[in-house]
Amino acid sequence: xxxxxxxxxxxxxxxxxxxxxxxxxxxxxxxxxxxxxxxxxxxxxxxxxxxxxxxxxxxxxxxxxxxxxxxxxxxxxxxxxxxxxxxxxxxxxxxxxxxxxxxxxxxxxxxxxxxxxxxxxxxxxxxxxxxxxxxxxxxxxxxxxxxxxxxxxxxxxxxxxxxxxxxxxxxxxxxxxxxxxxxxxxxxxxxxxxxxxxxxxxxxxxxxxxxxxxxxxxxxxxxxxxxxxxxxxxxxxxxxxxxxxxxxxxxxxxxxxxxxxxxxxxxxxxxxxxxxxxxxxxxxxxxxxxxxxxxxxxxxxxxxxxxxxxxxxxxxxxxxxxxxxxxxxxxxxxxxxxxx
Amino acid sequence: xxxxxxxxxxxxxxxxxxxxxxxxxxxxxxxxxxxxxxxxxxxxxxxxxxxxxxxxxxxxxxxxxxxxxxxxxxxxxxxxxxxxxxxxxxxxxxxxxxxxxxxxxxxxxxxxxxxxxxxxxxxxxxxxxxxxxxxxxxxxxxxxxxxxxxxxxxxxxxxxxxxxxxxxxxxxxxxxxxxxxxxxxxxxxxxxxxxxxxxxxxxxxxxxxxxxxxxxxxxxxxxxxxxxxxxxxxxxxxxxxxxxxxxxxxxxxxxxxxxxxxxxxxxxxxxxxxxxxxxxxxxxxxxxxxxxxxxxxxxxxxxxxxxxxxxxxxxxxxxxxxxxxxxxxxxxxxxxxxxx
Amino acid sequence: xxxxxxxxxxxxxxxxxxxxxxxxxxxxxxxxxxxxxxxxxxxxxxxxxxxxxxxxxxxxxxxxxxxxxxxxxxxxxxxxxxxxxxxxxxxxxxxxxxxxxxxxxxxxxxxxxxxxxxxxxxxxxxxxxxxxxxxxxxxxxxxxxxxxxxxxxxxxxxxxxxxxxxxxxxxxxxxxxxxxxxxxxxxxxxxxxxxxxxxxxxxxxxxxxxxxxxxxxxxxxxxxxxxxxxxxxxxxxxxxxxxxxxxxxxxxxxxxxxxxxxxxxxxxxxxxxxxxxxxxxxxxxxxxxxxxxxxxxxxxxxxxxxxxxxxxxxxxxxxxxxxxxxxxxxxxxxxxxxxx
Amino acid sequence: xxxxxxxxxxxxxxxxxxxxxxxxxxxxxxxxxxxxxxxxxxxxxxxxxxxxxxxxxxxxxxxxxxxxxxxxxxxxxxxxxxxxxxxxxxxxxxxxxxxxxxxxxxxxxxxxxxxxxxxxxxxxxxxxxxxxxxxxxxxxxxxxxxxxxxxxxxxxxxxxxxxxxxxxxxxxxxxxxxxxxxxxxxxxxxxxxxxxxxxxxxxxxxxxxxxxxxxxxxxxxxxxxxxxxxxxxxxxxxxxxxxxxxxxxxxxxxxxxxxxxxxxxxxxxxxxxxxxxxxxxxxxxxxxxxxxxxxxxxxxxxxxxxxxxxxxxxxxxxxxxxxxxxxxxxxxxxxxxxxx
Lengths: 340, 340, 340, 340
Known about the structure:
- The structure is a homotetramer.
- The first copy, chain A, is an alpha/beta fold.
- Chain A has 2 domains: 12-251, Aspartate Aminotransferase, domain 2 (3-Layer(aba) Sandwich); 252-339, Alpha-Beta Complex (Aspartate Aminotransferase, domain 1), CATH 3.90.1150.10.
- Chain A has 14 helices and 11 strands.
- Chain A has helices at residues 13-22, 34-46, 60-71, 85-88, 93-98, 115-123, 151-160, 173-180, 184-187, 219-228, 237-247, 251-271, 295-301, 328-339, and strands at residues 53-57, 76-81, 102-106, 133-140, 166-170, 195-199, 209-213, 277-278, 286-292, 307-309, 315-321.
- In chain A, the strands form 2 sheets. In chain A, strands 1-7-6-5-4-2-3 form a 7-stranded mixed sheet, with helices on both faces. In chain A, strands 8-9-11-10 form a 4-stranded antiparallel sheet, covered by helices on one side.
- In chain A, α3 packs across α10 and α12 (251-271) packs parallel to α14 (328-339).
- Chains C and D meet through α1, α3 and α10 of C and α1, α3 and α10 of D.
């Protein structure tokens, strides 16, 4: 009953096997390994983007911060939702990588920016030398509260962004695709996205994220920034191998489907329990819920692990995240404990 | 006959096994995994430093740059040898992490700073608000040209550094210990070193380096800087597992001993070949050599892989690096081709 | 009828005379001029702070950004009102100087943070390595909308700030003192302020601001940061001379009294005109007002200069700022045009 | 007998008068004053560059650092002489402004880079993602040791620079023009220079430097960087007025001619005194000299002020700088004391 985060799960056997296979012999370092050639080709196929630049890094914060840095100058503004991971959970990494840019927080229910709120924020920024200049938009999908933008919703945001480059923080990109049935292309460049953090770690890898840049003119700058951030791996083959396994036979989508199914089973079960209230639409693998005070103690005694959240007096709240490795038994055990 | 770099080698079976073992079940993320508890304890034992702060990152550039950042303010000077990796091979990463500090290059034969040259550089820096201020010293051991400082030589440098904190770039730390017979403590804090980049990747890990900070007052700043650089791994257990295997039964020293032995066999063989000149003392696993023009073509035709280096007219030069996985057959094959 | 900003005014004769006097002969550069000795002493007297470090720079953005940089590390959060100049009008200068810190915006009516809102913001920030850490508070007095904090209100904010260092953006510090009758000490260190941007430019200087740091342990870092930002003047005597004249015979308070009196005359007059609404309490020299659509054209035709502000449909809004050089005739002319 | 630096001199009457004239009435702030319109036009005429972007800042460090920042990305290398002011005397300001770029030091006698040494440095930098990338060249004229590049020498350097943008640190630009008889255009864009720090402060202004950018595509970035560095003056008219007076009737060249003539008189006199050795060619207003130990005491007793420099045992060395305000009497008094 481990629902603390999808990053507490291990990796499936295919990933371990790929690591082991990759270990044989010598390999050219720094991203010039032959496995990476295959990954690059495969990512381009997945995104139907034959010219895209494709890079691997080991953490989502690196993927996001480097993406921001190639889109936003030091005097620029990044428009993102007020719950965005880049604002809340990266200890100022984007500002560090951008050399001091500013995140402008856009409100919106259930973790989603609305096109109107985004347009208003952009219109209210810049206009003279005295303020930071609108530079980019960053959209998180799956959002930080477990809701999911459809491709049409993404497209509406990128339309509101006008000429600004748009980044998709896809730490849970696979979960968003599974949730919507969209293709990777539909969710990204066809909807106006320019750069994607294509997550792997939260969905079954050890530590590997791809950055997909649809305009290859940005590629060399990305490579230099990655290097000087210490995110270019010498023994890169072990990152490549993870992504190679991830993409093979659509493992990435299979894993996300398992996580989302577990999320749905959990949410559906919780919705049926009196006194439990779901705080946001559960569209992928994250559940935010509120219940009467005193429930935490009972759940924890039963062995449930998750994050507490702030709640009104008399209530408790929680964030639960399912993953590819969540079992029906985990879910049902939790529901039984909650119901008791 | 793959001598391009020790980072082109794979990892030994023990490391793969540790990764596999670590994969079972759920683990607390972000460095709070139980394997890391063991690693922390073991590193402290290895360094005879029970209060040291111990952190893992995935690349040497991250280890070095974060080490510089906690020792040197944006207006500070880092004194290092003119061949130092932090100056030559990290695309300005230390400057990025420090927020604009300056590397002051200290000369010295065979990749080694002399205490006098270091003292002169320090004395010539700062002294008024108009220049950057002396802030730290960074010593590389094994040096970038394959020579090795003894603990006494390190101590002489840290004495010349006076009150400045001293960092050891130990990307090949194990090779330096094997070369000198020194203990980790003798090579570091007993010789006046304050922070160590304790390398693993070049010596048989996939991508894992420890940073050992003898003054734990710097620990929290390190953690924040690591996080905001994107170098805090969520699935940290896979870094921990690598280091756990590395330290178990002194595997790290065994691997380095193999690499150094191969380096010695290669150097000794080359020294016996007429027309081949070793450019620097070969004390660990790196050989810099010069030979007559035309030799490259013959060696490469025989399948040898290594880096070309600049050479005077009529000559060619090369850097060769051995690793834990270099075989006697690799070495002897190369010597045969060179001799031909 | 020039109400665009107090920075559109010239300087009084005393300042010109001081510049001329300072011009004689040679002077030691970089803040070591003898006039600065006098300024330093006089500022310490004004603030009743005999140990304070006192520095001059030429712009308010420099004063504020350097103040932030010595109080807030790159991973820190600066708590300020959502209208703060450091957030809205400095093009990200604080983030640049801090190396990427984050401004956390605190709400509050009429440009003022409330202690509760500040405490809530601080409590909601940091707490783990994943977010930026509470680092400092910056209070603006006179606020950006023309209201004024009393010393008691400042003290309540610094109490809410707990151990965090507190900065006062006093671009209109003299106006705030005149408005409240407080002494410089009462408005600053006695109320818990640690660093002050003591403005001169908006109140009759050409371009000179003092930074007053009550804890002299921060002085050397400030000097180095000022130098490396290009804000250490070689011919510093011309900055010193401005501040010398400013402080002599309380010229600074006299000038602010004139500006505030003009502001009051203007506000009082506007309040008597039907259809004109003052949007914020007018406590110093800034007036924010709303009036019926069509009024701008009439005022501008009459020669009035000020900034338009956003307004609801059917209305217009304006910001007007008076200065030491605003005349009764300017004010009365404006009121006549507005009334017409 | 004040030869410490040209920045210890005051300003001529014309500059004071211009400041006084500029003080009348209200002026649009932030560089939009009408005097600046005149300055902009006049600078373009002086440089025969009708499209040049022209900006004013108050310090040479600001001019140089902003110039570097618009030419060199954070991962770039600036090639400059090892004595360059940007390396030695700005406390790392260029690195701060560039976000961590690296200065690569080029050797050369008498403060001058040679084209060959520059080409070698450039060729040895970059070439892979592991090192910083060649980004720009910065040439100082007058050099830091008082020698002067001719336009042909500048052109040879910019040719060696290939496609890299070239900056001229002209803190003593007027002195260089007077020394060579070149026009501003010949010394800059006709010789391949892209951006100029056109100094005023060392040559008779209070604190004003122009930055002249021949490619106006860089202008907006410069404006934003200037603003967020706190170098955009609200009461900009007082900077404009200084430059307006400076350019009127070629005052700037007259002042530099006086400084250079004094320098020549001083150097010629020193060269005739036995035991005094000039260390560098004296081509403008700076003299570096060596003399027997014990001389300092005698000169200082006579009231001479200058900087000591390191010297071999048995000798002393000094830097002396003349300015527009140096009198024949100052020079002759010094020579008499030196001769005694």
